[in-house]
From TrEMBL:
Protein's recorded name: Beta-xylanase
Organism: Microvirga arsenatis
Catalyzed reaction equations: Endohydrolysis of (1->4)-beta-D-xylosidic linkages in xylans
Alphabetized GO MF terms: hydrolase activity
EC number of the protein: 3.2.1.8
Length: 328
């Protein structure tokens, strides 16, 4: 569905934090291989709001300046996420939480209005295991605003930056199995409800944290899901792609090949079925992956989930992503 021209002009991005900016080889690799950056954690409310009376945008401003100085597009991540609420706000979920959350969103979107391309306005709204009929996660945002919180967030963001592409970002939509299928169904119902009431969601963010040897290559259920999303008139952003190799053999060359094949098969499927606005990886070089902590390999070897090796050399995964972009 993504035309050849669209594929060639796809934005390719990576998650970034200010500590990366002091690593010259990394910033050179980013400028060589990327045209989009996403703050890995420093634009989140728990970082900005760490001092209860004085928001701290210093780190986010540095990342925004790096992007602007180097002509990189900037994807804002993320305004409302249940895992990024400031300590001082976690206790209460009442009116002042609602006021504080809305004030944070409005102030942050207004601060960067016109300077960034897109926002993950709400991150990970679904948790079917929480038992609600609508599959919504029982979060402080739901407690404070009710099920309309998604509409509230998107309308507030659109009012303060009408030019930004507003994204609803979710994890696990690309997984196989009944739980993921339930989540995909809840996501379709959620989007149908929100679009029917005019909530300004333009794009579905699919985090795409894949697992080699577990990610189905054809994946008919996910393919059908993407077709439904396209039928709603929504574009897709691949927001946090990486491929965990914790199930792969130890040999690095074998792992690199399996990881590359996983990237290729996944992107071929998504680019076939969706209007993809951008593809971002969650880190660019293997040394910076969150997966070593989150998904350690049983043999203790360090993960090799990303596009560049620890010396910023392009791996088979990089070539696989580029080939998918070019439809080669
Ligand atoms: O850099 C500071 C360090 O100076 C300090 O001593 C230390 C202890 O507080 O914290 C360090 O910052 C940590 C940062 O990662 C860098 O390691 C933060 O505490 C920690 O919260 C932060 O975790 C991030 C996490 O989101 C929560 O914000 C991860 O980097 C980031 O990869 C992860 O990304 C999430 C996406 O936002 C949403 N999708 C899932 C994805 C993976 O969990």
């Amino acid at each position: 569905m993504s035309s050849a021209a669209a594929r060639r002009n796809l934005l390719c991005g990576t998650a970034l934090c200010t500590s990366d900016l002091s690593a010259q080889p990394l910033t050179r690799a980013i400028l060589r291989d990327c045209n989009l950056v996403t703050p890995e954690y420093e634009l989140k409310w728990d970082v900005i709001g760490r001092h209860p009376h004085e928001p701290d945008y210093s780190a986010a401003d540095r990342l925004m300046a790096f992007a602007a100085d180097n002509g990189l597009a900037f994807h804002g991540h993320t305004l409302w996420w249940h895992e990024a609420i400031p300590e001082s706000r976690r206790a209460n979920q009442s009116m002042d939480f609602a006021q504080a959350a809305l004030r944070h969103l409005e102030r942050t979107v207004a601060r960067y209005a016109g300077r960034l391309r897109s926002w993950d306005v709400v991150n990970e709204p679904l948790e079917p295991a929480h038992g609600r009929q609508d599959g919504l996660r029982v979060s402080p945002f739901l407690a404070a605003f009710g099920p309309d919180y998604i509409e509230t967030a998107f309308r507030a963001a659109a009012a303060r930056d009408p030019g930004a592409i507003l994204v609803l970002n979710e994890m696990g939509l690309e997984y196989a199995g009944p739980e993921a299928e339930r989540k995909r169904r809840h996501m379709i119902d959620l989007l149908e409800r929100e679009l029917a009431r005019g909530t300004p969601i333009a794009c579905l963010g699919i985090q795409s944290h894949l697992t080699a040897l577990e990610q189905p290559r054809q994946h008919p259920a996910f393919r059908a899901f993407l077709r439904t999303i396209r039928g709603m008139g929504l574009s897709v952003m691949i927001t946090e792609m990486d491929v965990s190799d914790h199930l792969c053999p130890r040999d690095p060359r074998q792992r690199d090949r399996i990881v590359a094949d996983t990237y290729r098969a996944y992107l071929d499927l998504v680019l076939d079925e969706s209007r993809v606005l951008a593809v971002g990886t969650w880190g660019l070089a293997d040394f910076s992956t969150w997966l070593n902590a989150f998904r350690p390999r049983p043999d203790g070897a360090r993960q090799r989930p990303l596009l560049l090796d620890r010396a910023f050399r392009r791996k088979p995964a990089w070539h696989a992503v580029r080939a998918a972009f070019l439809g080669a």
